[in-house]
Input
Amino acid sequence: MNYWSNYPKFFVSLMKSFYGDAAQKENNWGYDWLPKWDQTYDVIKYFNMMDEGKVTGYFCQGFNPVASFPDKTKW
Output
């Protein structure tokens, strides 16, 4: 007996709660309708985006982002 063996049931239940009767086996339970990430976003990526002017602010709570940078002299 394995808890994760129930994952397919949980997933189908979640998709049906999102999309109702439109979530069918034929359309993969609506999985393709879920939003997808266009790229990987992490702390370093966000700081690079801020440096490029693509992000104008960043709230950080609970850790020091600079401590995770390999090149701390960049900022």
Notes: The mean pLDDT is 87.
